[in-house]
Design a protein that fits this description.
The structure is a homodimer of 215-residue chains.
Chain A lengths: L13 E12 L9 H4 L3 H12 E2 L2 E2 L3 E9 L5 E6 L10 H13 L8 E4 L2 E4 L3 H8 L3 E11 L8 E7 L6 H9 L3 E4 L7 H17 L6
Parallel strand pairs in A: 1-4, 1-9, 8-9, 8-10
Antiparallel strand pairs in A: 2-3, 4-5, 5-7, 6-7
Helix pairs in contact in A: 2-3, 2-6
Chain lengths: 215, 215
Amino acid sequence: MEPIDDRPSGVRSRRSFVVIGARATASPDFRLADLPGTSGRLDVLLRCVRAALLVSHGLRRDAVVYLVLLGGPVAPRTVRIDGAAVRFLRPDERSLALLVQKALAAPRAGDGFVEVRSGVAVVDGGVDAVLLDLGECTVYVLDERGDDLREAALAAQGAFVLGDHRGFDEASRARLDALGARRISVGPRSVHADDVVAIVSNELDRRDAAPGARP
Amino acid sequence: MEPIDDRPSGVRSRRSFVVIGARATASPDFRLADLPGTSGRLDVLLRCVRAALLVSHGLRRDAVVYLVLLGGPVAPRTVRIDGAAVRFLRPDERSLALLVQKALAAPRAGDGFVEVRSGVAVVDGGVDAVLLDLGECTVYVLDERGDDLREAALAAQGAFVLGDHRGFDEASRARLDALGARRISVGPRSVHADDVVAIVSNELDRRDAAPGARP
C-alpha cells in the first residue's frame, strides 16, 4: 500500500497526543527526587510532553498533549498542555514534573478544562473529557498490531492515543474501540511512549513539509 | 532515490550513537536537583541514553552509546554504555544522571576505555578515543542538511554522531569531515537529540525486520 496524504495542499497538521497513565497519580503528592517510585510512573508521561512539544530551540505551536492520570483516589484527572499557549517549557523531567505538580495543586473552579497557567489546563475526567475537548478530530490508537504509520492516511487534525509502559486500561480501550479509532503502529519493535511520539511527529513533519506528496 | 539496504540478508545491525556534549561536564560535580543548570546540559545526553538503549520492558542489546563530555577542566572524557553488558538501566533522567555521576567518580587505572561497572566504561578522551574504540564501522553524522535517513544506505555496523542542543564543536566536525563521515538528516524539522536517536533507531528496526527489502 502506498502512503496516502489526505490533506489538502498547504494545510498544516494540528496534532494532539493523548497519553494514558494507567497508574500515574492524579494528585500532586509525589516526590521530585523519586518520580518513578512515587508517581505511578508519571515520568513516562512527562517524557512524552517533551517529545510532543519541544523542538530544537523552540516549541511546536501546532501540538497539544493530554496526560490522562488514572492513578490514586482523586483520579481520573487530565492535564492538557497546549503548545500554542504554554510558556517557559523546559525539557528536563524534573522541570516538567514541577509544572504538572503545580498544575494538579492549583485551585480550580468550573467544569471542563480549567486553565491554571498559560497553556496548562486541568479537568476532573479522563478519556471522555479528552474526546469532548478534541472536538472534530480523527482519533488514532498506537498499537503494535496496527497499520504501519508510514502507510496510513493521516488527517490534518489527528489525535494520537497511547498507553504508558503498562499499555492501555480496558475501559479506555473499549471507549476508543467504540469510537472506531484506527490502530496504527510505528514499527516492528515495541518502544517507549516518548519514542512513539517522536516517530509520529517525524512522520507528520515530513507530510507537512511535502503536502500532497507521498513521503 | 529509493531506499537502499546494503546488508546481507539476516545480518542484524549493531548500532552506536555518539553524542557530543559541547559543554557537558566531564566531572561528577553536578547536582541531581538541577541537572540543566549545573552539568552543562548533561540532561540532553542522558535522554539519548534512554532512547538508544531502552525499549518497552527491555534493553537493546545491539546498541552502544558514547557520551562525549567536552565541558569543564578535566574534559575531554567519554562515558560508554553498552547495551550488551549493562544491567539495571532505568529510563528516568535522575537515575541515568546518578549512573553517569558514579561512573565519572569511579577510580580508574589504564589507558583506553576502563569499565567501572558492568557495561559502563570511561576514557580520558573525546571523539578520537571513540573512533578508535568503534573499530570497523561506518560513521554517519546527523546534520539537517544531510541526505534523508530513509533513503540512505545504512551499514550493518553504523555509528551515528550527533551534537547536543548547541550542535557540533568545530574540532569534532573537522575530525569527522576528515574521516569522510556521511551526513544524514532525520527530517524537515530540527529536533532534540533524543528524538533523533529514536527516529534513527526506528529506521534501523524497520530494516532489521525486513532485511534486503525496501523499507
